[in-house]
Design a protein that fits this description.
Layout: H1 11-21, E1 25-28, H2 29-34, E2 41-42, E3 45-50, H3 59-69, E4 74-79, E5 100-107, E6 112-118
Parallel strand pairs: 1-3
Antiparallel strand pairs: 2-3, 4-6, 5-6
Amino acid sequence: MSIRPGRPEGEAGEIWDELNATGAVVVGRRTAEQVDYYGGEHHGVPLFVVSHNPPPVHGAVTARTALAAGVLDELQISQVPVLFGSGMRLFDVLPRRIELEIVRVIDTPQATHIRYRVS
């Protein structure tokens, strides 16, 4: 596999490679705004921002909606070592209990990346 410019070294590079293998990334609007829309792409793949309204919806709403509809196969959460002190809880309002299976955990100084399979 050829190394692309901007690809991080080590385990973080595995996440980069996996995202490059996907066709696209879907995020909520607030997530996209917080990271400046990833510059229009996310690790080399197209970025689609889901929103009910034109600019300010966070990934929490997008992920909750997909989980509730039963259309999400996998979920990756990248937890950064920052506490904002406010914001929207990710999964506090779901219509039912949803089991997750840990597929992989990669810990880097910048974030802990956890990939789950939705059961």
